[in-house]
Amino acid sequence: MWRSCMRVSQSALQSKLGLGFCRRLSSSEPRKRFAALWGNGDFGRLGLGSLESQWRPAVCSAFDHHSLVAIACGGAHTLFLTESGCVYAAGLNDFGQLGVSVDKNYTTEPLEVSALPKKIIHIAAGYYHSAAITADGELYMWGKNSNGQLGLGKKAANAVSVPSKVECLNGISIKMVALGSEHSVAATDQGEALSWGAGGSGRLGHGHESSLLGFFRTSSEYRPRLIRRLEGIKVKNVAAGLLHSACIDENGSVFIFGERAMDKFGFREAKNATAPSMISELPYSKQVACGGYHTCVISSSGELFTWGSNENGCLGMGFMETIHFPERIEGPFSKNPVSQVSCGWKHTAAISEGNVFTWGWGGSYGTFSDDGHSSGGQLGQGSDVDHIKPKMVEFEESVRALQVSCGFNHTGAILEYIEA
Question: Where are the RCC repeats (predicted)?
Fold first, then answer.
């Protein structure tokens, strides 16, 4: 049994977290990586000890004595991965997506996902489900399972609150997993692409087609299934959105599948979009991200391309019309390359030269605004105003961004202090 992780210090949590960074590291101290979050605070998804929204980045000081290496923002929950390989979770837990036992169906404080038996090196969060990959390539999943999105088989419960190993993958090493609204996509160490969960709109890439009346004949996949249209192609990067998915192979080619995504392309018929199709308009690429109805790709040289639905300006082009073909975002990325991108439902975040840029939906309508809950702020710009062009997020200290993750209407980043 792998050693137990140290518990997060709960005494570090205060009701007014996030009003400033705790302190700056001196040059003699090791560079520590930490998490900052902003946006909708409903159900404590920010892990800041309260239900309040944050209009600007707030440090999750629950990890004052830990160094973080990754963050994954889901629908209304967040996963944190420490340098020692431990996973923590905060936010909504109505389907067990936190993987922890709590008295209420949510927690405002990050709690350890203690049922994971091994060191974790990769985490992912979907709308209501979660995943973790161990150092030896085992895949564990938990949360909502109504359409088989956990890959545990047809007899598994509709909600699984304890991380469960995907047993059918025994002997197969998983390198990366991406979670959408009700489906999952993964890449193996050998470059094979797998998908499972809800199959509507062709988001699994298995070639299902619509009937003449437009009703989908697709059915859920309850176990990981090889995407045969990608056989012979070594996949190295995968992404999952609301109703579409994408991947990149070792040659830098981008493949996309999902009818709602391909409806936005003028060069092909939607009925062919249920199987992976290569997008020839893109240069050699290294990362792809899928949002609600938009997609982003980073080329090998750091150029950022976007296309799809452009509600609230989530494509960052300076206007809100739909874009049918990949177009490069200029602005702050004209001279400085983009190293990472993440898509929320209708907002986007990217890292360039260690800075975080956000654009799209500012969150003027909270998820539960009708009930008097807090609204958004997921752009971290101090308000809930939409931005149709990338704008840099201001931090109170000199920091470098290492990773960014967009949830439904919240955002998180892994940062490190820049030495004086």
Answer: 33-84, 85-136, 137-190, 191-251, 252-301, 302-354, 354-417
CA distance 26 to 104: 40
Measured at the CA of 197, the angle between CA 191 and CA 202, to 5 degrees, comes to: 80
Give pLDDT, residue 343: 98
Query: How confident is residue 261, by pLDDT bands cut at 50, 70 and 90?
Result: low
Percent of the chain clearing pLDDT 70 (strictly above): 84
Q: Detail the DSSP E strand segments found in 31-182.
A: 33-39, 54-59, 68-73, 77-82, 87-92, 106-112, 120-125, 129-134, 139-144, 159-165, 174-179
For residue 328, the cross-strand partners are 305
Token pair, residue 129, equals 């489900």
Report, as an integer, the average pLDDT of 176-188: 98
- Taking the C-alpha atoms of residue 130 and residue 412, their distance in angstroms, rounded to an integer, is 16
Query: First-to-last CA distance in the chain?
Result: 41
Do residues 55 and 411 make contact, with C-beta atoms less than 8 angstroms apart?
A: no
Backbone angles phi, psi at 62, to 5 degrees: -60, -20
> HSE (CB half, 13 Å, CA atoms) of 280?
2
* pLDDT at res. 196: 98
Phi, psi of 375 (to 5 degrees): -95, -150
Instruction: Please name each of the domains of the chain with its CATH number.
Output: 33-209+237-417 (2.130.10.30)
Q: Which of 159, 28, 53 is nearest to 375 (CA)?
A: 53
> Residue 123: pLDDT above 50?
yes
Alpha helix locations (H) across 279-329?
Answer: none
3-state helix, strand, coil in the chain (%, to 5): 10, 40, 50
* pLDDT over 90 percentage in the chain: 78
- Asked whether 308 and 331 are in contact (CB, 8 A), the reply is no
Max Cα-Cα span within the chain: 68
Burial grade of 171 (CB within 10 A; 0-12, 13-18, 19 or more): exposed
pLDDT band for position 290 (50/70/90)?
Answer: very high
Side-chain half-sphere CA neighbours of 203 within 13 A: 33
Question: b/e string for 58-82 if b means 16 or more Cβ within 10 A?
Answer: bbbbbbbebebbbbbbbbbbbbbbb
The DSSP bridge partners found for residue 34 are 415
